């Protein structure tokens, strides 16, 4: 896993389109997929996320090829938010997602807790996050425009190995 500079935006965009079109049909409508890809994955928006919003993008590699990416930002001391965690469906089930998450923990040694949101009908991803030790914290419904809504779970993970004994 490598930290991704803004020069990798075209690769992130290509991966996002490939992954979303392989994964999200049947979870959200094709119209919502198109809208969200345009909203979140334009070159301008990705550049803004990287340079103004404090999101650090990490590229996930398999056999010397980029196969996914993670975007994470620090929200407070020891508290982070994963904005994006995507792997090409062709490499899922090979342990790459778990290894990528462990690599994040190594890159952010102060990480005590992390949150993310996931569509409530995205059962495969929800189960993956459960496997990592995440729990469902709450439901989040967010209007994103054009009549589309993100109906998500907010999931939470705590690093029990670095948490004070009283919090375990």
Strands of the widest sheet, in order across it, are 1-2-3-4-5-7-6
Derived structural class: alpha+beta
**Residue ranges: pLDDT <50 for 5 or more in a row?**
163-168
Quote the beta fraction.
35-45%
Radius of gyration: 16 Å
Helix and strand run:
EHHHEEEHEHEE
Main beta sheet, described? 7 strands, mixed
Rounded average pLDDT: 94
- The portion of residues assigned to helices is 25-40%
Describe the model.
It contains 5 helices and 7 strands, in the order βαααβββαβαββ. The protein is globular and about 45 Å long. The two termini are 30 Å apart. The protein has helices at residues 9-23, 30-40, 43-51, 96-107, 123-132; strands at 2-3, 56-62, 65-76, 79-87, 113-119, 135-145, 148-158. It is of the alpha+beta class. The protein has a 7-stranded mixed β-sheet with strand order 1-2-3-4-5-7-6, with helices on both faces.
Can you lay out the helices and strands and say which pair or pack?
Layout (H helix, E strand, L loop, with lengths): L1 E2 L5 H15 L6 H11 L2 H9 L4 E7 L2 E12 L2 E9 L8 H12 L5 E7 L3 H10 L2 E11 L2 E11 L10
Parallel strand pairs: 4-5
Antiparallel strand pairs: 1-2, 2-3, 3-4, 5-7, 6-7
Q: Key terms for this structure?
A:
single chain, 168 residues, alpha+beta, 7-stranded mixed sheet, 34% helix
Give a quick rundown of the structure.
The protein is of the alpha+beta class and 168 residues long.
């Amino acid at each position: 896993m490598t930290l991704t500079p803004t020069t990798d935006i075209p690769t992130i965009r290509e991966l996002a389109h490939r992954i979303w079109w392989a994964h999200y049909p049947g979870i959200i409508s094709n119209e919502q997929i198109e809208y969200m890809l345009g909203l979140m994955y334009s070159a301008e928006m990705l550049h803004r996320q990287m340079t103004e919003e404090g999101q650090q993008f990490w590229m996930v590699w398999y056999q010397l090829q980029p196969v996914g990416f993670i975007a994470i930002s620090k929200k407070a001391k020891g508290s982070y938010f994963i904005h994006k965690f995507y792997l090409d469906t062709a490499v899922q089930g090979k342990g790459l997602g778990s290894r990528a998450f462990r690599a994040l923990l190594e890159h952010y040694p102060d990480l005590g807790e992390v949150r993310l949101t996931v569509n409530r009908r995205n059962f495969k991803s929800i189960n993956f996050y459960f496997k990592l030790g995440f729990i469902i914290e709450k439901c989040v419904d967010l209007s994103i425009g054009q009549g589309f809504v993100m109906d998500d779970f907010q999931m939470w993970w705590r690093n029990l190995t670095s948490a004070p004994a009283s919090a375990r």
